[in-house]
Write the structure tokens for this entry.
Amino acid sequence: MQLVSRRYDVADVMAAQEFYHSRGWTDGLPVVPPTEEAVAACLDWAMLPPDSLIGIEPVRARALTAEKLAVNAVMAGCLPMHFPVVVAAFTAMLQEPFLLHGATASTGGCAVLVIVNGPIAAEVGMDPTFNALASSDRASTAIGRALRLCLINLLDVRPGAIDRSSLGHPGKFSYCLAEDEAGSDWLPLSDECGMPAGASSVTVMAAGAPRQLMNEWTAVPEEILDTYAAEMRANMRHYSIWPGNYAIVVPPQLRTHFNAAGWSKADIRAYIFEKARIKRAEWAECGKAAVVRDRGSREYAALTAPEDLLVVAAGGPAGGFGAVIPPWLGEKSRAVTVAIGACVDCEVP
């Protein structure tokens, strides 16, 4: 296998860390030296030649190859079996509806949320239960981090350069989870997004930080969802009024109540669509009276349609907790789902 990336000789592993840090090639954490053997192993596992074109960044027309993604995946700590997920996720990010340049250059500070579905999640060891939105397991952490290193090193998405974020959030290190399909009776997110049943897929979303909530004082689905809707309304009041893809994470303790009442994901989306709305006048209650003007009675919905809500089954088994993950900026960026190991925009004779 012929690789074209430049090679560097360093004295040892510690010297490699200083070498990469001095050139701004890391996210501030130590990296795994991307040896030729490790990079080739990733490419072999994904059955991709080094010069395979993963996609072209639409604003600056930068071509991104499998070799360059593999280098950064190794640096992030990925094993070869993780690499197909990295490729699929970056392929999704390059699709026009995701608006990659806007999401990564914004002052708003979003990160790329990655949701993995299908058999590959278990195959690579992703754990969708305890600590699902943090360091739940090696695969989730490394895959999410690989995307950030690819953005840094392939598209110059560095703080103060392309990345103009005022604050950012910890999801910029890694923001990746698997849906708990084995522990849920609900239709998986991938099936809802049109993927073939049983296929592995990734969904990417330009997302703000997760907003954790708790309601363990009721078993009534409507009351539980009122808590989720209230958190979405809070985001509309405090951050952005514009509708877009929201994601909600529903752990087992809350899912038990929905299952007992026979509620599906579609039922949840329909209820949230009606409840997650505010009047513009509410901005006056949180210091934004100047933008209310004469439109105080105008109503805004968090979602343009029920289907805009991503309902994700994940989380540890105990506690009435949940999370709302808000969009970066309304409809400017849309969540994108692609199958893992499938070709996007291929020409079929």
Summary: The CA atoms of residues 1 and 40 lie 7 Å apart. DSSP finds eleven helices and twelve strands in the chain. The chain has a mean pLDDT of 95. The two ends are 29 Å apart (CA to CA).
